[in-house]
Design a protein that fits this description.
The complex is a heterodimer of chains A (241) and B (531).
Chain A lengths: L1 H4 L5 E5 L3 H11 L5 E5 L2 H11 L3 E5 L7 H9 L6 E5 L4 H9 L4 E4 L4 H16 L8 E3 L2 E4 L4 E4 L2 E2 L4 H12 L4 E3 H9 L6 H16 L9 E4 L3 E4 L10
Parallel strand pairs in A: 1-2, 1-3, 3-4, 4-5
Antiparallel strand pairs in A: 6-7, 7-8, 8-9, 10-12, 11-12
Chain B lengths: L2 H30 L6 H19 L1 H19 L11 H50 L3 H15 L4 E7 L6 E8 L7 H13 L3 E4 L4 E3 L17 H4 L3 E10 L2 E9 L8 H67 L5 H26 L6 E5 H11 L1 H4 L4 E4 L7 E5 H18 L6 E8 L2 E7 L33 H11 L3 E6 L5 E10 L9
Parallel strand pairs in B: 8-10
Antiparallel strand pairs in B: 1-2, 1-6, 3-4, 3-5, 5-6, 7-9, 9-13, 10-11, 11-13, 12-13
Helix pairs in contact in B: 1-2, 1-3, 2-3, 2-4, 3-4, 4-5, 4-8, 5-8, 8-9, 9-13, 10-12, 12-13
Chain lengths: 241, 531
């Protein structure tokens, strides 16, 4: 991981069959990257990614030669570089499939330049952070130590059940990244049984009631409808410019 | 019956002259040597001729031969000759024994012959049924199997026409599904209504020459559901012109078989049994036609659904790709200080929302909306909806009125439920004065969860209340810059419908409108540990 030691600008790989879209991505992210590689097909993208090892990949789903999900899983076989998917299909099941296949994030077309830039930056930053232990977290008025499994508000302990702790841990470990129902369920319960979605919904509800100031306007436990959940440490981090 | 019977009859006819010729020859030969032969020899030779005649010509010839031979024996060979008188009383015994032996032998031979004929016919039928079974299974199209059954029935019973009538899916009327033989024109209206009658009664019926119809008693002895039970007409009546048999598969009547003939139909019990057996094959054929039609329909629906989905996905891709380029270019211009670039970007966003709405509407109309119905918490739906309308809401007040404590849960698709609520909230935000609050409440009502969005807008006149849910509807007094294409409420209703929800509106006490959205309630799961 050279990125952890050198502050060098990251290498970006843009995969899209439309040159105009590649130009738009370059325009949006260009100032934050050192080098910008481009590929028009899935095959070319895989070759470039294997050879050049980019630090972040922006991948369009509508490639002429390969299914986007297949490109994702193929890239994941040799690199953990964040993949941000561009998609003109706004179907949630498709997004969930992509995240399950190893994508880190998705941006729907037509994307806003500002938004795309923010997402790419966030993922590059996250991938360069050491994945080591987190210290105590401050969520608004709540003090949380996931390692020690303690939570308090103004010195008063907040009790979480073991299941709630596991769920919180899974979310915090992937802060800023949307976890699919499937991924979360596997992380907390290990195997799938019964209606996985309903347990997840109920326990997320518990976390919100215990750790959010207002459960109706959650700032940390964000629902991605039809896809999963995302934990945000700082409120509004994901939408910030 | 058909061909084999006719050759038997021809053979029998030929047997008559031949038998009498043989009898005459035997008598002449014996007469020539009369002085040297015994009575017993004559009796044995004559008996031989009688047995031969019986075997060749049947019972009647055998008996006739016996009596003739008896008379010749008495007249020519028993003294006194050339009278029917008998001298020796013991000769009576010989004569009587001869006659009885001849007649009994003729009877026995004839019966054995009949048995053989029946056995042959059975074997023939079994073979036909076996062939039919194989044919019904092997033909590619179910209709062809049904036609094969009709053909076998028609040729085996030697009737003019055999047809299978089944119920039409669209109106339940009976119509011809297969026919064999000279069935004139389409099934007559009265044949169709008669078939319906037979199917309802669950019993066979006959049509007579005088155009009256009669139900038969049912085979299981139960009274037919309609009309009077009578003796089976196919046995007693000479003027039956058509026979209708209900077709049953597992106690369900799937159609009616009708055999008709221009001359009287007379069936013996064996033929009747044959008809019943083949009727079962016809019933299976009908069932197969129905199943394969259903399978075909399901397959074409599935293919149409896939095609629509692919088409819509393709259109959405084609429409959004240029919008992406436009937005990126506009952003670039805005960064370089172009004053109007900002509004190009905004308009591109607006166009994108319209594209999304139109695609959703066409998905709903095409029945191609992807659904993931599951357990969802009401609080979460409200939370996501509020987050989605943040931009449009600005600093407007939205009062939330929901029960605290035990959460309410619904069975629905989370994405679509959020969309419904977002559209209702957007509608309220657009069409009510900015200084008025909007109230969003959640309630349990029986086995449903009801979300309500209440505003203090101008309200909607009663005659417009359903029209607001039609696509492209816009209120007459709406400001031209307000809202989109007028699809929000139509989409809300469509999306509610596909997940067993409802959307409707009512006037609000004190002015304004209340939009209601309800969903089926879901039970909260039992959890593994106390919270």
């Amino acid at each position: 991981m050279p990125a952890a030691t050198s502050p060098a600008l990251p290498t970006l790989l843009v995969v899209d069959d439309e040159p105009k879209i590649r130009a738009a991505v370059r325009e949006a992210v260009g100032r934050d990257v050192g080098r910008c590689l481009e590929a028009g097909t899935g095959q070319a993208a895989l070759e470039l990614a294997r050879r050049e090892r980019p630090d972040v990949i922006v991948l369009d789903l509508g490639l002429p030669d390969m299914d986007g999900v297949d490109v994702c899983s193929a890239i994941r076989e040799f690199t953990h570089a964040p993949i941000v998917v561009l998609s003109a299909r706004h179907s949630e099941s498709e997004k969930a499939r992509l995240l399950d296949a190893g994508a880190d994030d998705y941006v729907t077309k037509p994307f806003g330049t500002v938004e795309l830039r923010a997402r790419v930056r966030a993922h590059v930053r996250r991938s360069r952070l050491p994945s080591a232990a987190q210290g105590p977290l401050q969520l608004g008025p709540f003090q949380i130590d996931v390692e020690r499994r303690t939570a308090s508000r103004g010195g008063e302990a907040v009790h979480l059940t073991p299941t709630e702790w596991s769920l919180l841990q899974a979310l915090v470990n992937n802060a800023g990244r949307t976890m699919t129902h499937h991924q979360l369920f596997r992380a907390v319960w290990g195997v799938s049984h019964g209606d996985a979605q309903q347990y997840l919904r109920v326990y997320i509800g518990h976390l919100r009631r215990k750790l959010e100031a207002d459960p109706y306007t959650p700032r940390h436990f964000i629902t991605e409808p039809g896809i999963g959940y995302r934990f945000e440490l700082a409120a509004g981090d994901h939408d910030a410019a | 019956m058909t061909r084999p019977e006719r050759t038997t009859a021809q053979r029998a006819l030929l047997a008559w002259p031949l038998s009498f010729l043989a009898l005459a020859a035997a008598a002449a030969a014996l007469f020539a040597v009369r002085p040297s032969v015994d009575k017993a020899h004559v009796a044995l030779v004559f008996l031989l001729v009688v047995l031969g005649g019986s075997a060749a010509g049947g019972r009647l010839l055998g008996i006739t031969l016996s009596i003739t031979a008896f008379a010749v024996f008495d007249f020519v060979f028993l003294p006194p000759y050339y009278t029917f008188a008998i001298r020796d009383p013991l000769d009576w015994l010989v004569l009587a024994a001869f006659l009885i032996t001849g007649i009994v032998a003729a009877q026995l031979l004839a019966r054995a012959d009949e048995r053989a004929e029946i056995a042959r016919r059975r074997a023939d039928e079994v073979q036909r049924i076996a062939m039919l079974g194989a044919e019904a299974l092997s033909v590619g199209r179910a209709e062809a199997a049904l036609a094969a059954v009709a053909r076998v029935i028609q040729s085996t019973l030697a009737v003019a026409c055999c047809e299978v009538l089944i119920q039409r899916a669209k109106d339940g009327a009976y119509e011809r599904a297969a026919a064999a033989g000279a069935c004139v024109g389409a099934a007559a209206v009265d044949a169709a209504s008669l078939a319906a009658w037979v199917a309802r009664a669950g019993a066979a019926a006959t049509e007579r020459a005088d155009r009256t119809t009669h139900l038969e008693p049912r085979a299981d002895g139960a009274e037919p559901a309609l009309a009077s039970a009578q003796a089976p007409a196919w046995l007693v009546d000479d003027d039956v012109r058509a026979l209708l048999v209900p077709l049953r598969v597992r106690d369900r009547i799937v159609g009616v078989l009708r055999v008709s003939h221009e001359a009287p139909i007379r069936l013996d019990p064996a033929q009747r049994q044959f008809l019943e057996a083949l009727a079962y094959y016809a019933a299976l054929g009908v069932e197969r036609v129905r199943l394969s039609a259903e399978a075909e329909r399901a397959e074409s629906f599935r293919q149409a659904g896939q095609l629509k989905d692919a088409l819509i996905a393709g259109v959405s891709h084609d429409l959004r790709t240029p919008l992406t380029t436009i937005k990126a270019l506009a952003h670039g211009l805005a960064v370089r200080g172009e004053a109007d670039a900002r509004s190009i970007e905004e308009e591109a966003d607006r166009l994108n929302r319209m594209v999304a709405d139109l695609l959703d509407l066409s998905r709903l109309n095409a029945g191609a909306m992807p659904l993931d119905i599951g357990f969802n918490v009401a609080d979460e739906i409200v939370g996501v909806a509020l987050q989605r309308i943040r931009g449009l809401r600005g600093d407007r007040t939205i009062e939330i009125d929901a029960p605290r404590g035990v959460p309410l849960a619904a069975r629905c698709d989370q994405v679509q439920a959020v969309r419904v609520l977002v559209n209702l909230l957007e509608n309220a935000l657009k069409y009510s004065p900015p200084e008025t609050p909007i109230t969003l409440s959640v309630r349990q009502r029986g086995d449903r969860i009801e979300f309500t969005v209440a505003d203090r807008g101008p309200g909607i006149p009663s005659e417009e209340r359903e029209r607001v849910f039609t696509p492209f509807y816009r209120p007459l007094n709406a400001r031209p810059d307000v809202g989109g294409a007028g699809l929000g409420l139509a989409i809300a209703r469509g999306m509610a419908d596909v997940q067993n929800g409802r959307v409707w509106m009512e006037p609000r006490d004190g002015g304004g409108s209340v939009f209601r959205f309800d969903l089926p309630l879901a039970e909260l799961p039992k959890l593994d540990a106390p919270a």
